[in-house]
Please model this.
Amino acid sequence: MGLLPKHLRDNIVNVTISLVKTLQSIMSTFGKNKGMLNLSVTIDQESGFCFGVVYAIEMAEEILEEQGYLYCLGDIVHNDEEVERLKLKGLRIINHDEFKELKNERVLIRAHGEPPATYQIALENNIILMDASCPVVLKLQNRVKNSFDDQEKIYIYGKHGHAEVIGLQGQTNGDAVVFQDLKELDGVDLPSSFTLYSQTTKSTDKFYAIKDELIGRGYKVKANDTICRQVSNRDNELKVFVKNYDKIVFVSGRKSSNGKILYDVCRQNNVNTYFVSSPEELSPTMFEAKDRVGICGATSTPMWLMEKVKSILTAY
Ligand code: SF4
Model:
């Protein structure tokens, strides 16, 4: 250095200072955003796909492998990230209008099941149905049909327009009354005695509250708790799981019925619960250093998505 002219030495010193500053700035940004929150992150091993969804997706993937494409009537699962993954493999989601126009193809029926009219259209259009209706839903359809055949008045606690509910109503030629809130029955002339069913993914607590309220009003209610145990058991497991963490990240598609219910369960038992439908919605500002974070999700949330969320959180 001593041999160099003064202006060159000054230049080298300035460049070195500026390099050190840049490095400090990178280190500080890195420190803020990567690894410095030191979160301890755990995925709830009971969360993720239920067996009905696993069955439908495995069936779809098998056919996609051999055929390269496959039509599916409605979103195969209420999770956009998983739907996108399968679309990239060749899954073609169609609605009921498009289904009516289709001929000579194979079409997957998802876990929610379908009403009898869908099977009729398939027959007329030479469509082979790859039926992945969940056995729990099929059993419920059967019970509703038997009640209808026995001329019982049927009320279904379920979400208006939900595919499973449409499938159930179809067992009764559209006769069954669907309600998603007890208020909808206020002021309605109900028969003195009727049969009550529930969509498989509704809240157990709400179903029993509705049953008790209706009995309290003097109706004779033949109540059938037809909520899927994959949902109601998870309900109880989540109540315990979320209490062990400072923050909860609940991962679910926004269209998922049980996602909404299970998220409510989490939030009631841990107020620091965030609903996240894709990893892009995460931010380091949601957490404090050394937070213990629990990740859980709906019966339609893929494990790979929760793993992705975990790897993002552990990098904060
Ligand atoms: S939640 Fe239950 S009924 Fe619904 S698809 Fe899953 S296993 Fe079947």
In short: The two ends are 42 Å apart (CA to CA). Residues 252 and 291 are 22 Å apart (CA to CA). The chain has three domains: 40-48+230-315, 51-133, 136-227.
